[in-house]
Amino acid sequence: MNLDQKLYTLKYTPDNESHLNPDQSKCKNCVSRNCTYICPAGVYEWNEEKQELIINFENCLECGACRIACEHKCIDWRYPKGTKGVTFKQG
After folding, report:
1. Is the pLDDT of residue 91 over 60?
2. Residue that wins the pLDDT comparison between 40 and 91
3. Number of domains into which the chain is organized
């Protein structure tokens, strides 16, 4: 089973607000933008036109790779509230 097939088996219950809050001013000065390619779910995208990081938080797998990979340590990362977020199924 490849990664895309595994991601398809996940159940998400997204919250209305993001549990991922990067410091956008630090993101503007970031050269590597590690978060945009380290995330297995493609949560982060850099918008060159607006010079901002787009966060698709509803796809987050809660693995924490982004906060480890961020060279400026600017991602305020928390688990989603209560019953929100990802549910992993056995299969």
Report:
1. no
2. 40
3. 1
